[in-house]
Amino acid sequence: MTDVSQTRHVPDRLNSRAARLFKSWEALLLAVAIAIFIINSFASPYFLNAWNLSDATFNFTEKAMIAFAMALLIISGEIDLSVASIIALASTAMGLAVQYGAGTPELVIIGLCVGLLCGAFNAVFVTILGLPSIVVTIGTMSLFRGISYIILGDDAFRGYPASFAWFGQGYIYWVFTVEMLFFVVIAVIYGVLLHKTNFGRAVYAIGNNPTGALFSGIRVQRVKFILFLLTGLMSGVAAICLTSRLGSTRPSIATGMELEVVTMVVLGGVNILGGSGTIPGVVIAAFVMGLVTFGLGLLNVPGIVMSIFIGLLLIGVIALPRLWAMFAQRRRA
Amino acid sequence: MKRMIPLREMILGGAILVLLVLVASRFAGFVAPGNLANVFNDTAPLIILALGQMVVILTRCIDLSVAANLALTGMVAAMINVAMPGLPIVVILMISILLGAAMGAINGVLVWKLSIPPIVVTLGTMTIFRGIIFLISDGKWVNSHEMSAAFTGFPRAVFLGLPVLSWVAIVTVVIFGIMMARTPFGRAIFAVGGNPHAAVYTGINVGKTQFWAFVVSGALAGLTGYLWVARYAVAYVDIAGGFELEVVAACVIGGISIAGGVGSVGGAVLGALFLGVVKNALPVVNISPFWQLAISGSAILIAVAFNARAGRTKGRIILKSAEVPQ
Predict the structure, then answer these.
(1) Is B5 left (phi over 0), alpha (psi -120 to 50) or beta?
(2) What pLDDT shows up at residue B323?
(3) pLDDT digit string (tens) for B16-74?
(4) B contacts of A308 (beta carbons < 8 Å)
């Protein structure tokens, strides 16, 4: 915004593919992840235990499911701050259905449909009425959770069917949880969608230049509408997993999760202003956040102090490369 | 007359009046002057914070760390009071404002010097500030019996019929009214938000203006931090949790464009008052307070949809961009 007068150094040719990969954000992040892993294994004797590590994945699987869809949304230049509230509303709807004797299949359908509806609600305001997504989703963030509060008050829904516990508490094989399976499948789907399809190219194009994208024949509003639907749907999936794991619904469920999801996406190298970012980056960022919280947890660090590390991580990983570039420039001058 | 009170503020003011009439038809005592003064006093922290947020949003930034800043400053003020009960309130006020401004300066430097997007910076500092409260307080509460009488009494002391807390809000509104309309800093804020490129060519340092906007917002959060803790006579980690969104909501309802450059002091104050009236009216008309969140969410959506329509005749953009905006 401010660097109006700066001229950019344009190289004659691109670096080799290996060199680019080595210098990429994902490589830096992977190094951070490995470093945290090694530090953790030295810091606590309980870290390198398959069951403990399996438990640790719950720290990030649900958030990461939303983060993949959110990554696409942020790359396209929009944002959805209402995801945690969609979880609350979807969970409340499922809890309400349980009171009327709904079984597991109905609960899943209800969870997904509420997610889709909420996504569509956001999408209508942003794409059809043309309003800024940050304001709209701050509004729906209050609205969706507000509806949960109206339905539940300070009460809670319990009594989910036993088979419903499979999503959040089930294991596929040995230490591999159902949520991990979801995480991997969703990561692959979104990776392919973003990096290998026309739709993915359109998302990048819209994020870099919406007007240019429109003139090159991309249905900008339709793509954005679909992205909001996908984010809503993923929030529905996360709501099913989280509700199943906790076994109860309170209106305060998943409070503040939207910020952790955005942190994960930004940590994964997605430009908050849109236009760039990758799914592998978000995957590694999910592991980094999971490892940090889990490692600190083993060292008896309280959750709120962990959030200091997450905050420092968020600012640090963005600030350090910029500081580095500033110093490099000063040395050259 | 039309120029002095813009349409948007008139409609919002009208909405508040309609709301008051509706509530009064169910319970006449709500509009008694004494009760309205109470409502205003209850909304005072929101008004003060909304003004700080307004300045930040006008420069195309956003400050999500205000509530955490408030809570941290409040905790520090309370702990200082416990450690040194004899310290005059003026000193505590100064410390609170300076500490808040320092935290705002951290946000500002990261936005100015490293050009990190404000939403990322303040998301980060929000969690960091909250964490620091836990570190310094060890998760313990500072309760009213540990605070000195002068400390808790200051915001409640009645002066010319109104509590000091209300007077602080009124003085802040007056100062901001003058600052935004009559000083180079106020003009620079509108210019930076309206068109940053043009602002550079008129000799305004965009990054520096954004930095000072964050300092102002931080200082007000610090001031509110002491007032909040003293008024409720308790300090703990989670005070004012989620309040940053209510502050942003007040600004949005007040017609301050999240895209920067458009907004007014009157709008921010009315936006805050609207939320304050809703909050205080719900229990009176026998609606469960659990409705409040959904109502303020709907109010944001309605306000932003309305403002987008009204936004075609843009009010206060000085330094218009060369091409006609669509």
Answers:
(1) beta
(2) 46
(3) 999 899 888 888 888 888 899 999 999 999 999 999 999 999 999 999 899 999 999 99
(4) 127-128, 131-132, 135
Tell me: pLDDT of A204 over 90.
yes
Q: Report the domain count for chain A.
A: 1
Burial class (CB in 10 A: 0-12, 13-18, 19+), A11: exposed
Residue A219 included in any domain? yes
- Domain range enclosing B197: 42-294+301-308
**pLDDT digits 0-9 by tens, B67-101:** 999 999 999 999 999 998 889 999 999 999 999 99
Of B117, B297, B300, the CB nearest to A272: B117
A320 in any annotated domain: no
Residue with the bigger pLDDT between B318 and B125: it is: B125
* A163 contact partners, CB below 8 Å, separation of at least 6: A103, A104
Q: Which residues of A touch B237 (CB under 8 A)?
A: 304
Does residue A332 lie in a domain region? no
Element (H, E) at B161: none
CA distance B193 to A70: 27
CA distance A33 to A54: 17
- Decide if B52 is inside a domain: yes
Would you say residue B2 lies in a domain? no
Tell me whether residue A201 is in a domain: yes
CB-based contact B176:B194 (threshold 8 Å): no
For residue A213, pLDDT beyond 60: yes
